[in-house]
Amino acid sequence: MLEWSAAVAAGAWVVLSLVLIAAVIRAMRLMRKSEKTLFLLEQEILLLVQQLQDFTRRSDEALKKAEDAAGELAQWKDTAVQVRELAEQWNLRISKWSKRTEDAVESAHRANEHRIQETLQWLELTLAIWKDIQKRRSRYAESPEDHT
């Protein structure tokens, strides 16, 4: 019976060894699969990192362009403000000149009307004197002996 015990123990040892060898082989396969998966994962991560770096670089470039455009826009705004202020100054000057011109034209118009009225008054006076002279002449012409 000792022999049978030794045979059973040896058989159990062989079975246990085979199970352990199968477990080790399975573990090695699992390790290789894990290694492949980790390698692929590392490649994916490297690709993602590269894409993220490209995206960050392009974002930085876009931000730089936007900042440059904002700076140029601020300069254009300042220029537009200066142009507007200059236009307002010219508008004010033109308004003043226009007012002065209107006042001068109005004053000249009043002066011309006054001169015309004065001329008409002198004309009326001259006409009245001329009519009076004509009247007297016609009277003298009709009766020369009355006035001598």
How is the topology of this model organized?
Blueprint: H1 2-142
The helix tally amounts to 1
Total strands: 0
Our measurement of the CA-to-CA distance between the termini, rounded to an integer number of angstroms, reads 205 Å
For the sheet with most strands, the description reads:
none
Q: Mean pLDDT across all residues, rounded?
A: 91
What would you say this structure looks like, in words?
The structure is a single chain. The protein has one helix spanning 2-142. With 148 residues, it is mainly alpha-helical. The N and C termini lie far apart (205 Å). It is rod-shaped and about 205 Å long.
Summarize the structure.
The protein has one helix spanning 2-142. It has 148 residues and is mostly helical. This is DUF948 domain-containing protein.
List keywords for this structure.
mainly alpha, 148 residues, 1 helix, single chain
